[in-house]
Amino acid sequence: MNQRMSTQEFEDVYHRYKQLLFRIAFSYVKKREDAEDLVQEAFYKRLYKAPEFADREHEKRWLIRVIVNLSKNDVKSFWHRNRVDMEDVPEQFWMQEEREALLLREVLELPDQCKVPMYLHYYEGYVCREVADILGCKESTIKMRLKKGRELLRFKISEGGMPYED
Q1: Which of the two residues, 161 and 70, has the higher pLDDT score?
Q2: 1 pLDDT exceeds 60?
Q3: Does residue 13 register a pLDDT over 50?
Q4: CA distances in angstroms from 93 to 36, 71, 78, 83, listed in the order given
Q5: Sign of the alpha-carbon torsion through 63, 28, 146, 158
Q6: What is the pTM for the complete model shown?
Q7: How far apart are alpha carbons 124 and 69 in whole angstroms?
Q8: Cα separation of 87 and 94, whole Å?
Q9: What gap in Å lies between CA 37 and CA 22, rounded to an integer?
Q10: Rounded CA gap, 139 and 97, in Å?
Q11: Cβ(135)–Cβ(66) below 8 Å
Q12: Domains located in the chain, CATH noted
């Protein structure tokens, strides 16, 4: 268990990672309120149940793993409600550039197996090995999921008329 952190340290951690954790949670649960609840739960775990971290990157990876697990559990739970249309996504979630927003929207509509690796790799900048560590699977699995995700995106984009650039 970690040593008790100060209020200021906790606030710094919260502000540093809240948007990242919200986006990941939202990509699973599709409801703002549910995603916010999961983010709160992740920070509760950070405050009271986290191990000692070697550095900020270790802490970030731990929080990502926690939010992914919490989100998966929520989706599987009895109380999970029907998903909302992507049109109901909160405005601050989308990026400013329309093209980037459309592409992110397409990424978030991918199957769960492809969605999180694609997001972590392309939007958060993790390499395949790091994504594999975070998600607890083999690097080759991540590479296949990224390949499948790119193929699905190419198909969706070509079907939807959105111009695709390699």
Answers
A1: 70
A2: no
A3: yes
A4: 12, 17, 27, 17
A5: negative
A6: 0.58
A7: 18
A8: 11
A9: 9
A10: 31
A11: no
A12: 1-82 (1.10.1740), 94-166 (1.10.10.10)
